[in-house]
Structure formats: structure tokens, C-alpha cells
């Protein structure tokens, strides 16, 4: 330690501490004394977000809770849960479908992703009436018509409408449509006029518009959430008529069948499903658009059922590769994989490999668009169907049938005794090894080069090539002949029809190498 020059450490510390305290007092006293008293509270001059209160006050009396009772013995699986949406069960969805894990009617009790609104069932008993579901709905007329989801009321035998003020009314089922997940109930209450709402004009609904969702989440009733329309035309794999609005308003189990309003108090969509890993809201909900609901509800009100036109053809999308192989200028329309035997399409002359490009002059975008357009017509309506066939445009008139209540994907096949398998053959430049298929129709794929375009397109050993560019093939020479002609015609791709245990499909493969 260095010298302290006669001063003790104690003295130095005492002196410096006293001086430091004095300095702190001098520094801190002045600012506190200079702060003036506030004359008024803080005000921020900024744009104000519009309130939804006026909309909510107007529409809330029209939104109801729907309580469902059933005397069905038992419709659940071993876990105690059941799932049905749009006529399809959860198990019907492909294993790789993004909603396989999550889309179980808004999640459910006791299990993440379980069924929507379906709480624990009471003990089973003969003929016992018990609550099985609870959802939302809304009045569309002063005389008591209520719109909700089909999956809310599907197995119900008694229905109760609970108003926002707590009043309860019995309701009867007018009709339901599983394909669009819509149902119509009717409250008979003489001398009572109900507050009701109307549907919005779909053409004015835009992505980014505000939407106010009102419903009965978790049985709480009269709950309001807000968000925006995130997207239109969503396909969630529930059926051929998927055309959902995606919204980010908080929607949970119990919101099913509840309306989503615009700022004019008009119904833009009916909440029907959510995408969620937990069964709760994560900001991705799906609603049936007003345009779909308007048409279906009108038919249910009139007849109790929905009759749809039926063309009777199996179709798939037209990719750019397929468009190139067929000489189409754009990847649009619906490619006919096969017309069903005895269907209106087959009787009108629609053939395998045709591309449906328009109906009554209105362009067809894709298979879903074609399905919706045909379904919009009444059975027995005659329509003009524009086709692209063999590199040329043509047109046929089709008298539509009625879409059967249940469609099956079965096909008639003949079991013939097949000769012994013939030797494998290579399809030059395509990365495929084939041999004549059993029965002599088509070429069975024996091996696929993993580095080939065929492998990239999903072709697998065990599948069968039945035609190339709509011409039947039974040998490698047949295939090569068709490819040579395609190259002479200036095509860079050829259209292969492939059959597997999952059905038939078309695949476009490049032919520039072989």
C-alpha cells in the first residue's frame, strides 16, 4: 500500500463522503424544484379505430345458440368421438392432408383436435334423450327461420334455440345439406317477430375487409370477436364444393353455424371450421360464403332438400405440363379421366382425355369450378359444354342428371384369366420398365428410374399405363409410335393415363429425349 502523507484513511473517507453527499443534494434539489404542475391530462391527436359497437348492438338479437338433443344409441368410435363434415369422415382425408390432424369439427373435449361442440355424452340408455351438441345460428326471417351448420344438428332429434336474452324456443328441422354443411331450422312462435339479418353481396367482399364474428364459443353465448377476411376460395378438403372464406377472427368450438358480419351488419360467411393444433383459436378459421349459403338455404326452405345437376365424369386439374401435352394455350379447365357408365356426360359423347373448358360460354377454371357450375343447375337442365379434344375445340349438349345422394368410387371390372407375364421392355428416355399388363390391356410398370421425370411425377411400379395421348397401348412399340407422332406435331410432352388401386389419373411426361 502507498504512503498516505500523514492523513489517516479514516479521515479521508469521512471527508470525501460528506462532500459527496453535499454534491448529490445540490444536483438533485434543483430539477425537482423546477418541474411545473400539469394543467391538463395527456391527449393524443391520432386517428381512431372505428368501433364495432353499433354493428354488434344491431345484430346481436338475431344471433342464437343452438342446443341439440339426440336419442341415438351411440355414434362415437372407441374413443367416444365421432366426426362428420360435408358427408366425409375424418378417416376419409388423405394421410398427408394438412387438416388430417386438426380438422375435427373445431376440436373437442378431452382430446386435442376432437369433434366440434360435442361434449361428453351421458351414460348410454335405451331411448334416452340427451344433449349431444351445441353450436350457433342466426335468424334470416322475422317468422323464425334459423341457419346453422349441418354438423351441429346432424344426429339430433330435438332442437332448442336460445336467444341472447336467455329465452328458449323449440325448433324443428326444415332441411340440411351435408355437402355444404348447412342446415335450416324453424321456430314456430305465433305473434312473435324475430330480429333477423340478411346475406351480403359476395362481389363486394374483399380480402382485408373487417369481419365481426358472433356466436356461442364454449357455451358462453353472445360472444363477439373481430378480424379480417384473410383469403377467399379456400379448399380444405371437405368436399367438391369447397369455396371458403378464411378469416382471422377468434373462432372456437361452439362458433359453428354462427355468422360473420361486415360493418353494415350483413352476413358475409357462416363459421364452420378452424385450423388448430389444440382445438382452440390460432387465427385461421373458415366460413361458408354468403353466395353459397343464399342458394342452398333458399332450396332448403322451398323443398327441404338440395337437388344438384350431375354430369357424371371423373376429372382432374390441367397442369401446365398437361396443357403443353394437349396443345392448350393455358393450364385451365378440367381434364376428363373417365366418364361414368350411363352418365349424362357419357351419353352426350364426352370422352376420356377431353378437357372441359366452358359451360354455357362461361370459362371453367379448374375441376372445383366445374363441379360448382354443374351443381348450380337443376337436374334435367340442358347445358352447352365446350371441350378441347385432339387439339381442336368442340362442343356438346348435355342434359344433366341429378346428383345421387351418395356417390361411390367403384368401377366395373372383369376378372379374366391372364397369360403368363411377358418380358420387360424399356420405354426409351422415360426411365420406365414395363411389360404387357395382365389381361392384355395396357402396360404394367415394373420399374421406375428414381432420377427420371416419371419418378418425379409419382409413377410407381405396380401401376398400369392404359393410354398415351388418348390412344390405347399394349406394348412399348405402341408407346413409341404415339411419342413419335407427338414429336412430329411439335409437342414436347405426352399425356399418359395411369391406373392404380386409387383410381385413374393423367400424367404429362417430357418426350424430347426419347
How would you describe this protein?
This protein is an alpha+beta fold. The protein has three domains: 255 residues, Thrombin, subunit H (Beta Barrel), CATH 2.40.10.120; 94 residues, Pdz3 Domain, CATH 2.30.42.10; 86 residues, PDZ domain (Pdz3 Domain, Roll). Strands 21, 22, 23, 24, 25, 26 and 27 form a seven-stranded antiparallel beta sheet that branches. The longest helix is centred in the first third of the chain and has 26 residues.
What ranges have pLDDT less than 50 throughout 5 or more consecutive residues? 1-19, 21-30, 74-89, 100-127, 406-421
Secondary structure: helix percent: 10-25%
Content-based structural category: alpha+beta
Radius of gyration: 33 Å
The CATH C-level class name of the largest domain: Mainly Beta
Strand content: 25-35%
Number of helices: 9
What is the name of the CATH topology of the largest domain? Thrombin, subunit H
> How would you describe the shape?
elongated
Q: How many individual domains?
A: 3
State the end-to-end CA separation: 94 Å
Biggest sheet, in brief? 7 strands, antiparallel
Mean pLDDT: 78
Count of β-strands: 27
CATH architectural name of the largest domain: Beta Barrel
Amino acid at each position: 500500500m502507498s504512503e498516505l502523507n500523514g492523513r489517516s484513511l479514516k479521515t479521508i473517507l469521512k471527508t470525501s463522503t460528506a462532500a459527496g453527499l453535499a454534491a448529490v443534494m445540490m444536483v438533485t434539489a434543483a430539477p425537482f424544484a423546477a418541474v411545473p404542475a400539469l394543467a391538463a391530462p395527456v391527449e393524443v391527436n391520432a386517428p381512431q379505430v372505428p368501433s364495432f359497437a353499433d354493428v354488434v348492438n344491431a345484430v346481436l338479437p338475431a344471433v342464437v345458440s343452438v342446443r341439440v338433443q339426440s336419442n341415438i344409441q351411440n355414434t362415437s368410435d372407441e374413443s367416444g368421438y365421432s366426426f362428420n363434415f360435408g358427408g366425409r369422415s375424418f378417416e376419409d382425408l388423405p394421410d398427408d392432408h394438412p387438416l388430417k390432424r386438426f380438422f375435427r369439427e373445431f376440436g373437442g373435449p378431452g382430446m386435442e383436435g376432437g369433434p366440434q361442440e360435442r361434449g361428453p355424452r351421458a351414460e348410454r340408455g335405451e331411448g334416452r334423450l340427451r344433449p349431444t351438441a351445441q353450436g350457433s345460428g342466426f335468424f334470416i326471417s322475422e317468422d323464425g327461420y334459423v341457419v346453422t351448420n349441418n354438423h351441429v344438428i346432424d344426429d339430433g332429434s330435438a332442437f332448442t334455440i336460445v336467444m341472447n336474452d336467455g329465452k328458449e324456443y323449440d325448433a324443428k328441422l326444415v332441411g340440411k345439406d351435408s355437402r355444404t354443411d348447412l342446415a335450416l331450422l324453424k321456430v314456430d312462435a305465433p305473434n312473435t317477430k324475430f330480429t333477423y339479418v340478411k346475406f351480403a353481396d359476395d362481389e363486394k367482399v374483399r380480402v382485408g375487409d373487417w369481419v365481426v364474428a358472433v356466436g356461442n364459443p364454449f357455451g358462453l353465448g353472445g360472444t363477439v370477436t373481430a378480424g379480417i377476411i384473410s383469403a377467399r376460395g379456400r379448399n380444405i378438403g371437405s368436399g367438391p364444393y369447397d369455396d371458403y372464406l378464411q378469416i382471422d377472427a377468434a373462432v372456437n368450438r361452439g362458433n359453428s353455424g354462427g355468422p360473420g358480419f361486415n360493418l353494415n351488419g350483413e352476413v358475409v360467411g357462416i363459421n364452420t371450421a378452424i385450423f388448430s393444433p389444440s382445438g382452440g383459436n390460432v387465427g385461421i378459421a373458415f366460413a361458408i360464403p354468403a353466395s353459397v349459403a343464399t342458394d342452398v338455404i333458399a332450396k332448403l326452405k322451398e323443398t327441404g332438400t338440395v337437388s344438384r345437376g350431375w354430369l357424371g365424369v371423373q376429372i382432374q386439374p390441367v397442369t401446365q405440363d398437361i396443357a403443353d401435352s394437349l396443345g392448350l394455350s393455358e393450364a385451365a379447365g378440367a381434364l376428363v379421366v373417365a366418364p361414368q357408365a350411363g352418365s349424362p356426360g357419357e351419353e352426350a359423347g364426352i370422352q376420356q382425355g377431353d378437357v372441359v373448358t366452358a359451360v354455357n360460354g362461361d370459362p371453367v377454371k379448374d375441376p372445383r369450378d366445374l363441379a360448382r357450375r354443374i351443381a348450380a343447375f337443376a337436374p334435367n337442365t340442358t347445358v352447352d359444354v365446350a371441350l378441347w379434344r385432339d387439339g381442336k375445340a368442340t362442343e356438346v349438349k348435355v342434359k344433366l342428371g341429378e346428383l345421387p345422394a351418395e356417390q361411390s368410387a367403384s368401377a366395373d371390372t372383369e376378372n379374366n384369366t391372364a397369360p403368363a407375364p411377358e418380358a420387360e421392355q424399356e420405354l426409351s428416355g422415360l426411365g420406365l420398365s414395363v411389360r404387357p399388363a395382365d389381361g392384355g390391356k395396357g402396360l404394367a410398370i415394373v420399374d421406375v428410374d428414381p432420377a427420371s421425370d416419371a419418378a418425379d411425377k409419382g409413377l410407381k411400379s405396380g401401376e398400369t399405363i392404359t393410354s398415351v395421348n388418348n390412344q390405347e397401348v399394349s406394348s412399348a412399340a405402341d408407346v413409341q409410335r404415339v411419342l413419335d407422332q407427338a414429336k412430329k406435331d411439335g409437342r414436347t410432352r405426352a399425356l399418359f393415363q395411369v391406373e392404380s388401386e386409387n383410381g385413374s389419373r393423367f400424367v404429362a411426361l417430357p418426350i424430347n429425349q426419347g
